[in-house]
Design brief:
By secondary structure, the chain is mainly alpha-helical. The chain has a domain of 76 residues. The protein is 70% helix and 0% strand. The chain is built from four helices and no strands. Helix 2 crosses helix 3 and helix 2 runs antiparallel to helix 4. The chain is elongated. It starts with 10 loop residues before the first helix and ends with a helix. 10% of the residues are buried.
Amino acid sequence: MQPLQAVQANPNQTEDAAARKAAPDPAADSPRAQKLLHSAQEFEAILVSSWWQQMQQTFSDPSEDSDPGSETMRSMGIQSMAMAMAKSGGIGLARMMYHELAPAIAQGHAEEGLK
C-alpha cells in the first residue's frame, strides 16, 4: 500500500480566493444586499430545520407526545436553532448563495448610479 501524498494547493488559486474574500464589496451595506443575505440565511435555516425535523421524527418515541403542545414547542425549538445556526455561518449554504448572487446586486447598484 502506498502512503498518501499531500495535495498542494495552487498558490495562485489560494491568493485569488483570499483576495476575493478580502476585497470590499461596494454594495454590501446596501439594503438590497442585506435583504439578500437575510433571505439566504432564512433559506438555509428552513433547509436545516427540515432535516432536523425529519431526523427527530425518525428517532422519536411515540409515547413522548402525550402533551398536545409538545410538537409545537419542539418545532419552534428546531426552527430557532436552525435560524441561529444559519446566522452564525451554518453549513455555509447561505454564504455561498450570497457570494454567487451578490454580483448581481452590485451590478444593479452600479447601474443605478449611472442613471
